[in-house]
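Board notes (copied after class):
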Amino acid sequence: MNAAKPKNTAVKTDTDLSVSEDDIRERAYQIYLERGGLYAPPEADWLQAEAELRSTMSKKKRQKTF
């Protein structure tokens, strides 16, 4: 029996910030397009996207605490 994979999973971090894989995938694709579609390792785009999204979430979380 094949178990259905959750569609929108989240990547957890030590600081309890979570970013959905769909959001990371979308941002990584935007990075690729911004580069003009030129080749770069897809992992680099993924890691950059993840870092950007986590940074944005961290800033938003800090703004809520003040």
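Comment from the instructor: The mean pLDDT is 83. The first helix runs from residue 21 to 34.
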